[in-house]
Amino acid sequence: MTKTISFNDLRRIKDSLPDGSIRQIADKLNVTPQTVRNYFGGTNYEFGKNCGVHIEPGPDGGIVVLDDTTIYDMAIEILQGENKEE
Description:
Layout: E1 3-6, H1 7-16, H2 21-29, H3 33-39, E2 53-56, E3 63-66, H4 70-85
Antiparallel strand pairs: 1-3, 2-3
């Protein structure tokens, strides 16, 4: 299932994740942490892969189309769990 989100919103999600979340997601999906960072807008393809993220320039950092929402969904789940603990 695809999802469309602004680039700035995608970065806000990444920046809101608690320490260790990138590695936690990577470990669960058996990918490198850099692959997860690339999903959130990183561009280091030497140590990570592209994860089906397409960025179109525009306002608010542009539009991002996520071909696979698995990493996005896991990040939202982590954030929701953190909010419940507060």
